[in-house]
Amino acid sequence: MSTPVQQLFDLSGQTALVTGGSRGLGLQIAEALGEAGAKILLTSRKAADLEEAAADLQAKGIDTRWIAADASDAAQVQRVADEAMQRLGQVDILVNNAGATWGAPAEEHPLEAWDKVMNLNVRSIFLFSQAIARASMIPRKSGRIINIASIAGLGGNPPQMNTIAYNTSKGAVVNFTRTLAAEWGKYGITVNALAPGFFPSKMTKGVLDAWGAENLARHAPLNRIGDDDDLKGAALLFASAAGKHITGQILAVDGGVSAVTGA
């Protein structure tokens, strides 16, 4: 017997941990999952940002709490996992969104900046996936992991972007997602990635200021950049029973840019 579609997308009784969830794409995804009924736990480095984000979600009727932590630090990731289990009982959905970027020509790119980007964009995804799977998903043989990649990880950016560390890290997220999906399917865990194009955020502000939103929009078949709603549906698909037979997939949410570039 088939399941009504509204029920497939219903997250009532489930819990979601969103890293880098205090603003931007992470907050948009947290809002979507919360609106679908999930309890939300946000984590990022700055307590003030988390408190403000949690208050915004709570004002919309979403059960939200937060933990401040550095996602690139293994001990702090384990602390978040432990506290998540104590406060939520289980974690059904993990959204690995925390990330950073750095702009510099490859020949001048500082090593410390390379390490910062790799530690947050790649290492933290491994750390959180491992910690949450061990604590909650593998024992229950159920879970949804959503990694935030980028269309920058699907193909090279224009040379003026000068974001070799970021692009490399997002390429790693793409293959990490496919590899982990293959390995953890036996535990009933789906692992997928969203690959956004340009969205207004603190991370993309420099590029948007330099290139202009209208100019970037002209490179997309839909002639627009992303907005505050454009990741919600895709995230909910991957997080819910509606996506239970989807794993190891990378979904570009980019207005068609990757279709034009062939990424």
Description:
The protein has one domain (5-258): 3-Layer(aba) Sandwich (Rossmann fold), CATH 3.40.50.720. 46% of the residues lie in helices and 14% in strands. The protein has helices at 5-8, 24-35, 47-59, 74-88, 111-140, 164-184, 205-211, 213-217, 232-239, 257-261; strands at residues 15-19, 39-44, 64-68, 93-96, 143-148, 189-196, 250-253. It has a 7-stranded parallel sheet, with helices on both faces. Helix 2 crosses helix 9 (232-239) and helix 5 runs parallel beside helix 6. The longest helix is centred in the middle third of the chain and has 30 residues, at 111-140. It is globular and about 50 Å long. The model has no long low-confidence stretch (mean pLDDT 93).
Short description:
With about 260 residues, this protein is an alpha/beta fold. The chain is about 45% helix and about 15% strand.
Helices and strands: which structural class? Answer: alpha/beta
Distance between the termini: 39 Å
Instruction: Kindly state the percentage of residues in helix.
Output: 40-55%
Indicate the low-confidence ranges by residue numbers. Answer: none
CATH third-level topology: Rossmann fold
Tell me the total number of β-strands. 7
Q: Strand order within the widest sheet?
A: 3-2-1-4-5-6-7
What's the CATH class label? Alpha Beta
Q: For the residues shown, what is the average pLDDT?
A: 93
Count of runs of 4 or more consecutive helical residues: 10
Number of domains: 1
CATH superfamily heading:
NAD(P)-binding Rossmann-like Domain
Give the second-level CATH assignment, the architecture.
3-Layer(aba) Sandwich
Largest sheet: 7 strands, parallel
Order of helices and strands: HEHEHEHEHEHEHHHEH
